[in-house]
Automatic annotation (TrEMBL):
Cofactor needs: Fe(2+)
EC numbers for this chain: 1.14.16.1
Residue ranges of every copy of the Biopterin-dependent aromatic amino acid hydroxylase family profile domain listed in the record: 1-275
TM helices/strands, residue ranges: none
Keywords: Iron, Metal-binding, Monooxygenase, Oxidoreductase, Phenylalanine catabolism
Signal peptide: none
A Pfam entry, by short name: Biopterin_H
PROSITE patterns: BH4_AAA_HYDROXYL_1, BH4_AAA_HYDROXYL_2
Designated name of the protein: Phenylalanine-4-hydroxylase
Catalytic reaction list: (6R)-L-erythro-5,6,7,8-tetrahydrobiopterin + L-phenylalanine + O2 = (4aS,6R)-4a-hydroxy-L-erythro-5,6,7,8-tetrahydrobiopterin + L-tyrosine
Enzyme class: oxidoreductase
Family matches, as InterPro entries: ArAA_hydroxylase (IPR001273), ArAA_hydroxylase_Fe/CU_BS (IPR018301), ArAA_hydroxylase_sf (IPR036951), Aro-AA_hydroxylase_C_sf (IPR036329), Aromatic-AA_hydroxylase_C (IPR019774), Phe-4-hydroxylase_mono (IPR005960)
């Protein structure tokens, strides 16, 4: 999980304050302005409720203490400053302690539209509003607890659960399709793609059998997702959390992975060279 990155997280002072440059605050303002317009009538109600509670500044990067103050009051969570990328062990440990890891850097102008590393905009704007929701908050902590005690091999399967729920989850609500995954909510391209592209496959996630399906589904972090999984409501995370998640990992391992719905990276590189 801790791969190489060109970004370096900023360090807070003794009071927990991080000094951001005018350019970095401007990047936040542009990202916020673009994305808040993009997710209108697309993000789930619980997300917007959380956004209202957080009252994130639009013209500057928020201080982690500002966000933590609200999260602690609502669900007992807080933001925790981390380097640009961290390992699985630390990631699970922090989640199990209701500490949400936030890398304290913001993307460069060159990677304004997309970057693979989760920056502070992705973490705060994409995830923190829903951490004010009890079902989402409890599920995220439970995920950390389970991952902390899982084997290295099992963690690879568990990563798919996080990917297809917390990062790229959709809701099939009475008002239509809505987004709750932070990886979609912080990306204008993925927002429009997940909601409107006719090539996208959207599967229900409602029971143990479908959860095994999630565990068996490969993904890539550097492409638009060809498949998404849908809950009917955020509260269904409570039901998923009551399943024996590691026992279902064992079933998925016995069945094996589904055929990927995308070419491997090397094949893409070779195709590009030939064209």
């Amino acid at each position: 999980m801790a791969k190489a990155t060109s970004y370096v997280s900023k360090t807070a002072d003794e009071q927990g304050f991080i000094s951001w440059t005018e350019e970095e605050n401007s990047t936040w303002q542009k990202l916020y302005s673009r994305q808040i317009a993009c997710i209108k009538n697309k993000a789930c109600d619980e997300y917007f409720q959380g956004l209202d509670k957080l009252s994130l500044p639009e013209d500057r990067i928020p201080q982690l203490a500002e966000v933590s103050k609200v999260l602690l009051k609502e669900t007992g969570w807080q933001c925790h400053q981390v380097p640009a990328l961290i390992g699985f062990g630390e990631f699970f440990k922090l989640l199990s302690e209701r500490k949400f890891p936030v890398a304290t850097f913001i993307r460069s102008t060159e990677e304004f539209d997309y970057l693979q590393e989760p920056d502070i905009f992705h973490e705060i704007f994409g995830h923190c509003p829903l951490l004010t929701n009890p079902s989402f908050a409890d599920f995220t902590q439970l995920y950390g607890e389970i991952g902390l005690n899982a084997s290295k091999e099992d963690r690879v399967f568990l990563a798919r659960l996080y990917w297809f729920t917390i990062e790229f989850g959709l809701l099939n609500t009475e008002d239509g399709l809505r987004i709750y995954g932070g990886g979609i909510l912080s990306s204008p391209g993925e927002t429009l793609y997940a909601m409107h592209d006719d090539s996208v496959i959207r599967k229900e996630l409602d029971n143990a059998e479908q959860l095994v399906d999630v565990y068996r589904t490969p993904y890539r972090i550097d492409i638009m997702q060809p498949i998404y999984f849908m809950l009917n409501s955020i509260k269904e995370l409570d039901k998923i959390g009551k399943l024996d998640l590691l026992a279902l990992v064992k079933q998925a391992k016995a069945l094996g992975l589904h055929e990927p719905m995308f070419p491997p990276k090397e094949q893409i590189k070779q195709t590009a060279k030939a064209s």
